[in-house]
């Protein structure tokens, strides 16, 4: 496991040659994504960042962009408005970015929230959090794959819960948790984490030139636990207010540490050999080969190949997960 000093020393080496020159951040209007954008811009490198977010975040994004571009005049941040819980919107925004950029070096996906509260669906019939944390992320990946493949050292990072996969963690008979009584916060969070790894493991195997990471952010005090559709007078709301919030405040890493760790995930050659040179132990992916596997990365930037879990997932769940993804995403591909 790299120490924080090693992580920061690696990040200090980021320059025009090693920085992701063109990146797409979906979910960086706040939270871990925004902390990562801040850390990337602070390197002083020449970068173009597509900041994809919903209309309600536009004013916040404008202030953020002004601040970051003043701090690093070689950074260009392109506000790209889209309601990314909707697959049609993801398709539109990917077409827009692809029409402007022949290559994309980094795709960073971090939209979503802890799915506490009622099951709420998008106009396209998907549970909102599942769409943000899984289907829309996978659609971003599949639509931007040509531009990623064209880059020299392309990387995709999905920030959710890498490391928390279990062998039977996917309800393959109800992948979208639509059956009555089959949706709960705990089940949904576990399902979406496991779906991320099952699907990205397959895309990574099919695209060995691209480095794929499913990262865990650890505890970061972003207000994420308040975003679900929770009745403010419910027991759960009080539990969050009285217990979970103070606990997160106590245990959370600082914003700066989170940003540096994710920037390391974005740039270090520890993951797949391309990027800022890394002389420590190389990361191990789910195939335990240099490329073609998914890097499952803890909040401390260590890799977990999940060598007992992933073969079972690959055999028992992945074909059904992939078939369902084709059904859902097919119209948008
Ligand atoms: N923070 C933690 O401690 C922690 C721990 C474990 C896992 N995670 C997971 O890691 C990921 C990143 O976490 P975070 O703390 O960075 O999250 P966050 O700050 O709460 O939100 C990240 C992004 O999701 C967007 N978003 C939320 N709800 C949306 C909706 N209904 N429609 C469209 N966009 C929406 C936000 O947009 P706006 O800015 O417009 O609101 C923001 O850009 C999430 O999936 C989270 O569940 C976080």
TrEMBL record:
GO MF annotation: an example: oxidoreductase activity
Signal peptide (UniProt feature, chain positions): none
Record keywords: Oxidoreductase
SUPFAM superfamilies, alphabetized: NAD(P)-binding Rossmann-fold domains (SSF51735)
Highest taxon, organism lineage: Eukaryota
Annotated protein name in UniProt: Uncharacterized protein
Originating species: Thyridium curvatum
Higher taxonomy: Eukaryota, Fungi, Dikarya, Ascomycota, Pezizomycotina
């Amino acid at each position: 496991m790299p120490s924080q000093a090693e992580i920061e020393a690696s990040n200090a080496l980021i320059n025009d040659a090693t920085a992701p020159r063109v990146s797409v951040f979906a979910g960086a209007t706040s939270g871990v994504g925004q902390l990562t954008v801040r850390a990337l811009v602070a390197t002083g490198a020449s970068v173009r960042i597509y900041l994809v977010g919903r209309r309600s975040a536009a004013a916040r994004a404008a202030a953020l962009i002004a601040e970051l571009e003043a701090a690093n005049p070689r950074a260009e941040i392109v506000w790209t408005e889209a309601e990314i819980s909707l697959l049609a919107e993801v398709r539109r925004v990917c077409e827009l970015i692809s029409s402007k950029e022949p290559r994309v070096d980094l795709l960073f996906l971090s939209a979503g929230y802890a799915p506490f509260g009622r099951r709420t669906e998008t106009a396209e019939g998907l549970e909102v959090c599942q769409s943000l944390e899984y289907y829309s992320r996978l659609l971003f990946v599949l639509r931007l794959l040509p531009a990623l493949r064209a880059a020299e050292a392309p990387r995709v990072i999905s920030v959710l819960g890498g490391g928390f996969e279990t062998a039977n963690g996917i309800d393959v008979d109800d992948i979208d948790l639509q059956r009555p009584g089959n949706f709960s916060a705990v089940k949904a969070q576990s399902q979406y984490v496991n779906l991320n790894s099952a699907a990205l493991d397959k895309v990574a195997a099919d695209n060995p030139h691209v480095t794929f990471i499913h990262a865990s952010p650890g505890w970061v005090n972003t207000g994420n636990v308040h975003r679900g559709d929770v009745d403010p007078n419910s027991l759960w709301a009080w539990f969050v207010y009285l217990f979970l919030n103070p606990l997160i405040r106590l245990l959370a890493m600082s914003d700066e540490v989170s940003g540096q760790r994710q920037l390391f995930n974005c740039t270090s050659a520890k993951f797949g050999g391309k990027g800022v040179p890394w002389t420590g132990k190389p990361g191990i992916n789910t195939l335990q080969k240099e490329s073609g596997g998914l890097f499952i990365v803890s909040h401390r930037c260590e890799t977990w190949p999940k060598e007992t879990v992933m073969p079972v997932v690959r055999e028992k769940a992945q074909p059904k997960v992939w078939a369902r993804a084709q059904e859902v995403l097919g119209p948008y591909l």
